[in-house]
């Protein structure tokens, strides 16, 4: 691990200012992904800003009838909140489907959104990776790519966004709140938060240097049936090959977002409009796919997983 300096701050504005002042800084809270990356020297921040004292660890109700989730709310606290379990069950189920209990106790809402890809070539510093070292190439394209992306990818990178929580947040139309070093704030729809890779896969979000996530807001409850289904190689503690977050009405119409196939939680307006027609929705979700020989199966897996979710919503499956 490379040497770094460290400071602890007590407010979001102070955190953003400290990060901007130091240069080469990273925020740290749970550290469940960042510390691993620092040990491998994939992340080499010169300065860490500890934000655990900024008071962003509460879930509060908004004037519009939704919820505001502080960036430091742990995954365990969020998944077990009675309001979330009752009104946003897809979010609770998605969080429980990810990681281990120990990790969920430490992982935070803000940090979860910023976790980086689990592409094996990103973690292997002996391999070419445009995301880790821009301009070095993408070893994954000719390598083991079973887990990697099929839509929204580019010639520079075929990695996927790895998380579960964000897939549910995407189907709920969540909004990310931030603060910048100059004290100004932003509200960023989650659908615009993660970038597609293009020619710059090392730039993963629209956050500016020093900009800090302060909260995630949810609109008032949608009602309907909430389902999160994750297909993976192991029953637990594995990232999704394909996951589906769905909020469905009794007639099968509704909205879906897909995980495990793209640089960000993947939601397509035409797919929502096509429901309850599974085949048409799946075609919309995978339109323009450019899979490798090893992960072309994900096109069919999207349709089959979505069909399973629809059957479950109709009470035809466990």
Automatic annotation (TrEMBL):
Key word Flavoprotein present: yes
Name the record gives this protein: Xanthine dehydrogenase family protein subunit M
Domain of life according to the entry: Bacteria
Ranges of residues in domain FAD-binding PCMH-type: 1-223
Keyword tags: FAD, Flavoprotein
Taxonomic lineage: Bacteria, Pseudomonadati, Pseudomonadota, Alphaproteobacteria, Sphingomonadales
């Amino acid at each position: 691990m490379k040497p770094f300096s460290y400071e602890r701050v007590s407010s979001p504005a102070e955190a953003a200012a400290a990060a901007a002042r130091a240069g080469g800084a990273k925020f740290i809270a749970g550290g469940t992904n960042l510390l691993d990356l620092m040990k491998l020297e994939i992340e080499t921040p010169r300065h860490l800003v500890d934000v655990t004292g900024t008071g962003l660890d509460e879930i509060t109700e908004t004037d519009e009838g939704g919820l505001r989730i502080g960036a430091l709310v742990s995954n365990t606290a969020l998944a077990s909140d009675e309001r979330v379990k009752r009104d946003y069950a897809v979010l609770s189920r998605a969080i429980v489907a990810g990681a281990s209990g120990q990790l969920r106790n430490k992982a935070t809402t803000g940090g979860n959104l910023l976790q980086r890809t689990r592409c094996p070539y990103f973690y292997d510093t002996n391999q070419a990776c445009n995301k880790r070292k821009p301009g070095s190439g993408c070893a994954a394209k000719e390598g083991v790519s079973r887990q990697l992306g099929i839509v929204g990818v580019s010639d520079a990178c075929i990695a996927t966004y790895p998380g579960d929580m964000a897939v549910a947040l995407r189907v709920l139309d969540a909004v990310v709140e931030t603060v910048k070093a100059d004290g100004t704030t932003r509200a960023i729809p989650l659908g615009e938060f993660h970038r597609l890779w293009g020619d710059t896969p090392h730039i993963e979000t629209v956050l500016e240097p020093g900009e800090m996530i302060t909260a995630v807001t949810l609109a008032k409850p949608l009602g309907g049936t909430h389902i999160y289904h994750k297909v993976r190689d192991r029953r637990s503690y594995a990232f999704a090959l394909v996951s589906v977050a769905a909020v469905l009405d009794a007639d099968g119409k509704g909205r879906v977002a897909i995980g495990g196939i793209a640089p960000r939680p993947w939601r397509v307006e035409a797919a929502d409009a096509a429901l309850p027609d599974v085949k048409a929705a799946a075609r919309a979700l995978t339109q323009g796919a450019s899979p490798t020989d090893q992960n072309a199966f994900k096109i069919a897996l999207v349709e089959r997983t979505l069909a399973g979710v629809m059957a479950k919503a109709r009470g035809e499956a466990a």
